[in-house]
Amino acid sequence: MVKINSFFHLLYNDLIKGVIQRYKYYLLALLFFSFVCFELGMRTNNSQCSIFDFVLKFFVGNEPFDINSNEKIDIPIIWIMFHSILSLIVGFYVSDDIKKSASALIIRVQSKRIWWSSKFVWCIFSVLVYYIVFIFTVILFCLIFGNLSIVTNTDITEKFFKIDISLIKDTDTILVFFIIPMISSIAISVFQVVLGLIIKPIYSFMLIVTIMVCSSFYSNPFLLFNFSMISRYNYFSSKSNITLQNGVVISICLIVISYILGMIVIKRKDII
Amino acid sequence: MEIIINNLTKKLSNTNVLDNINLKLESGKIYGFVGKNGSGKTMLMRAICGLINPTSGEIVIDNKVLGKDISFPDNVGILIENPGFIPSYSGFKNLKYLARIKNKISDEDIKSVISMVGLDPNDKKSYRKYSLGMKQKLGIAGAIMENPNLLILDEPFNALDEETVENIRNIIKSKKDKENIVILSCHDREEIENLCDEIIEIKLGKIVKIIGNDKNE
After folding, report:
1. CA-CA distance, B151 to B27, in Å (whole number)?
2. In sequence order, what are the beta bridge partners of B31?
3. CB count, 10 Å around CB of B188?
4. CA distance A189 to A255
């Protein structure tokens, strides 16, 4: 009971210091989402983008790199920006907190495990807030452009994103558009936080961005960012092993491994 | 309470920041760590708190080995560098938040300890607007508020005016009883000599001298 109480106290502390007092990062995200949505809305001449059309703008991704292809390399800037901002939000708070208040709080709760659990939940919460801000912005722009609908506009998807969205099963749509990208983002974020405890957070951030860029070139389920690129799913290429099942299993495995690894790392880490 | 440090060594980047420390600390005494910046005072305090893992040697607290039998000392109050308060909260709200973790003291106790260090418990000013001295006072209040058996204060007199220093001095003296160990570090040798029963001089991670101070016994 005391441990649960301590955990919630630390979590409360992390939510205030790590989310509410870092609202500027989320404002930056809001600006970025707004800019991209506005740009799509204008480019489509107000032809009433739906929620999924806007989401597709962020998550469509690109074709994997093909050495035999003559087409120029297409780098998914918006997709990279989306994940880079999230990486920036989660990447530095925990290591900052170790330098600032960890010793006082760990001593008070008498447990590094509780401290780490709080940071772990904070990280998940931060990703959820990021996605909530994202969805909020998309809904806002749907209202502005007058089509608060979840039905994709095939004219837009084919013209601007060059994919046939009808190939995705209706029952899978929410999973592909929201749930799996969010779960994979959580997995990558907690992994980044753990890496930041082992190496310097700036190196951890750079490593994650490198994995992100590699994911934009190669279609491989172990390059986890692939699960947030809708065009990489097996609906569009029968050979692709970017499937919903792989997405869920690999992400959950990485989340569990990161939690356990973080526990081991923090137990051995000196709080200096 | 008794703390025994046996052959404690801590190596960081191939440097011994603590080098074969042997020390016995007993309750009813105030211990003062003196030494230059980087001599290892804070590192030794952190080791006693269980915040760093020794490279070799051990710290035994009441017959329990730190890091094996217990993870952290029981009932410890610390002020080491950053107390980790929430910037948007007032002093009282910050201490109340911390006190609720253990739930041992009342709001009145918190207000009384805030007054004791010379702050106004009803001041609504947020911690981020506190001066350096006020932050230091609140840090000391946070360390002593639950009457810890082991009180560790790293440079408690930093940024304090003479009147407050005298006040904190009296508070530290009042914590000296049969149950408690007080450890503090300070650059000011004279301050340490006035307050402490034993002065432990640390240089390059080694204890170079332990001086008993009869005038405080």
Report:
1. 11
2. B183, B198
3. 13
4. 9
Place of tokens 């749907």: A142
DSSP A149: -
Which residues in chain A have Cβ-Cβ distances shorter than 8 Å to B98? 108
Q: Give the pair of three-digit tokens for residue B173.
A: 């003296």
A226/A212 Cα distance (integer angstroms): 8
Judged by a CB distance cut-off of 8 A, whether residue B46 touches chain A is: yes
Structure tokens, B116? 């004791």
What does the mean pLDDT of chain A come to? 90
Encoded amino acid at A22, one letter: R
User: In chain B, which residues have their Cβ closer than 8 Å to the Cβ of A270?
Assistant: 12, 46, 51-53
Three-class secondary structure of residue B73 per DSSP: coil
d(CA A268, CA B190) in angstroms, rounded, equals: 38
Its ipTM equals: 0.88
Q: Tell me, yes or no, if B105 comes closer than 8 A to chain A by beta carbon.
A: no
| N-to-C CA span, chain B | 18
How do strand B198-203 and strand B56-61 relate by DSSP bridges? unpaired
pLDDT tens digits, A77-90: 999 999 999 999 99
Tens of pLDDT along A172-201? Answer: 888 988 999 999 999 999 999 999 999 999
